[in-house]
Amino acid sequence: MLASALEGFMPLLSWSGLLLLLLGTLMGMLFGILPGLGGPQVLALLIPVTYGLSPHMATIILIGAMGAVPFSGSITAILINTPGTGASAATTFDGFPLSRQGKAGLALGASATASALGAIFGAAVLALLIPVGRQVIMAFSYPEFFMLAIMGLSVIALVSQGSPWKSLISGGFGLMLSTIGSDPITGLSRFTFGNFYLWDGIKPVPALIGMFAIAESIDLFIKKESIAGQHKILISGVWDGIRSVFQNFGVFLRGSIIGTVIGIIPGVGGVVANFLAYAQTIQTAKDKSGFGKGDIRGVIAAEAANNAKDGGALVPTVVFGIPGSLEMAVLLGALILHGLEPGPDLLLDRLDIIFTLIFTLVLANILVSVIGLVSARQLARLTKIPSAYVAPVIFCLSLIGAYSMNNLFGDVLVTLCFGIFGYFVKRLGYSKIALVIALLLGKIAQESFHQTLVSMGIKGFFVRPISLCLFILILVFLTLPYLKTFSPRQAKGLLK
Amino acid sequence: MRISARSIFSFFLIVVVAIMVFLSFDYNDKARFFPLLFGGVTIILIGLQLLSDCFSGFEKRLAFVGRKSAFSKLIKTGGETQNPSEAEQSSGVPFVRVFRLFLWLVALTAALYFFNYVAVSVVFIFLLIALEAKAGWLRALFVALSVGIFIFALFGIILRVNFQV
């Protein structure tokens, strides 16, 4: 394992590795501070750039970008009350009041330190779970992978924002889309209508570029407004902010733990981590009077959780191949593109890649914190760029990027179709994450289901303890949101 | 009966899934198992959603369809996928503007098929910013040319992309 860790760290010591880390971090910062854009969009746009790169280098630029997004989102949240990403929304509650009091430096210093340390905490948890993950993965076979794939979707229905029913519909539709192409067992082509391009099914990367980069940009362009208002940007007292994290270390630690745990649960994401950590800090604080008016503890908890969740979200992604968040879903697609199949193969055969991923996540967070503090004022000015200028650029980059993957025009069409479809999915309150994860997990579910039937029969799903436990959990997750509807009191009412 | 964007979208989803389920009967047992299973469940889910979207009577009876998750109550702003405030904000946008933008995107895709992608990008960005976003011509030209140079450097020189369709 130590050898793999060293092998994973070496690419980061090369000039090209450092350059790609810097490039990824800068791209992540840019997308992080622009509201409406975030991790999934920057990853989707960077995928075409990684085609010619080795798997290590591709991982560095992608994780560099992903790691830079959360803190960058908090810069504009603190300075101009506009969270760059939804995951920084709770940071505005106390970050912006601090800015208005002329203490933006204090908030930014605390945010940068909590972000960097939170990310290190999440990455450390991921590193510690790898040896356990290897043991767990050995106990998993086809039925467990089938149950895990279905459980991934049912958890999303339970915890997603908005309507769980619509999340289930999105998941079901995504699963249907995953059946397009050759059947993994019989090889029969399904729903291809004689089109050769569809034989391989809907490729995840063009679909992801469409769903995230194009769909979000349509929304940005339609809104047609300047992102920031006319707020003044004042920065001082950064060192006090850095010190405040260590003075409130308990707040930081609780935020990091919440972020990591939320990250591990597939589909929950940074928004929930950010809010839960903030809410928990208020609940446990003795003096609650300062919250919402500029209490530094609010910034520390929210940002620690927001950054720690990335390490947590990588756990199900690399151990089981089940994406823990939107970013992870796109990252999963990118890794597959480079011949790295997250899950058992990656964990058992390419441990060095996982360590590259961990080290890059840590370094990107440290780098973005330093760059962010130095250039916060200039970065915040970027939000004054009207979104009408940003969106057309993303349209072109997305469509050309989709083509450059395989030199297939079908990829461009898929990107366009998913972009338009994704816009309606978002506008009408359906779940993009459930759809995308279902699209990615559909093939795994089909393969493992048939393999279970062939090797163990239908009883294979229920006689193995882990598989049975997962099945029970699925039932619980699917029924939980609706149990309250049929509470005993209401049942009595119905009987009357 | 209410006809809204929501009900039309639900109808679209149910039609797509129904067609797929119908077609899957032509396949052998193994190949059709999953489309039938997923499709059957999804049709039921969308069907109830459609009834809830179209008829106010069903909306009350099928209250569980519109139930929000526990996290929606916690989170009032921000969000990755289903931020209600965002959805409400977007729903106020006139559909004509959205449809016009879709046409621009279709035109961009068609132009990429027939012409050089660097030139297409420059022209598309310039026209979209100048005509649709109604920004200044000079600004639009500056953005278009800058991005054109970036696209040429990235895709033309570094990645050697060549649209040969």
Keywords:
heterodimer; A: 496 residues; mainly alpha; two-stranded antiparallel ribbon; B: 165 residues; 9 helices
Structure report:
The complex is a heterodimer of chains A (496) and B (165). Chain A has 496 residues and is mostly helical. Helices cover 75% and strands 1% of the residues of chain A. Chain A is built from 22 helices and 2 strands. Chain A has a two-stranded antiparallel sheet with strand order 1-2. In chain A, strand 1 (181-182) and strand 2 (189-190) form a beta hairpin. At the A-B interface, helix 8, helix 9, helix 12, helix 17 and helix 18 of A face helix 1, helix 2, helix 4, helix 5 and helix 6 of B.
User: How many whole angstroms does the radius of gyration of chain A measure?
Assistant: 22 Å
**Biggest sheet, spatial arrangement of strands of chain A:** 1-2
* Fraction in helix of chain A: over 70%
Q: How far apart are the termini of chain B?
A: 47 Å
Class by helix and strand content of chain B? mainly alpha
Cα-atom Rg of chain B, whole angstroms?
A: 23 Å
Note the main sheet of chain B. none
Number of alpha- plus pi-helical segments of chain B: 9
Amount of beta strand of chain A = under 5%
Number of beta strands of chain B: 0
Oligomer: heterodimer
How many helices of chain A? The count is 22
**Largest chain-chain contact?**
A-B, 92 and 82 residues
Largest sheet of chain A: 2 strands, antiparallel
The residue-averaged pLDDT of chain B reads 81
Overall strand count of chain A = 2
